[in-house]
Amino acid sequence: MGLLRMTVLVLVAAAVTGCASGEAFVDRSYTVRSVKKQKLPGYNGTLTVCYDGDAPTEKRDHLASEACEVYGLQAILIQEYKWQCRLTVPHLAVYSCVDPNMRLANGSYINPFMPGQVDRWVRGQKTEKADDGDQDQ
Fold first, then answer.
1. What is the residue range of 127's domain?
2. What is the superkingdom listed in this entry's lineage (predicted)?
3. What residues contact 96, with CB distance under 8 A and at least 6 apart?
4. pLDDT at residue 116 tops 60
5. Is the predicted pLDDT of residue 15 greater than 60, yes or no?
């Protein structure tokens, strides 16, 4: 029985220290992987950053910005959740990857990865240009 306890203790210690970096990081566990192409964080317009209570906001924002820059987009913090990530980095921040120029008439950002939202934005741009042309006459 002593050997079994020692083995369990060693395995638990190894598991905890293996995850004990405490550094903020972009969570890649939810991204879908396929043989043809690996999808990167932000591929659907959102990404998550795991962090601990000591991580400065600038660090989290920087990590999210780097992930969104792959797509030529900017990161905007949407929501923060406490105790939703890993043991050593328990908190979670959700970011959207957006194009600051792609906004609806009400000022809300669109998700550039959702064709329906992009189509609605394009139609809105055409309507605005047509309205501007009518005012010029």
1. 102-132
2. Bacteria
3. 45, 46, 75, 76, 78, 109, 111
4. yes
5. no
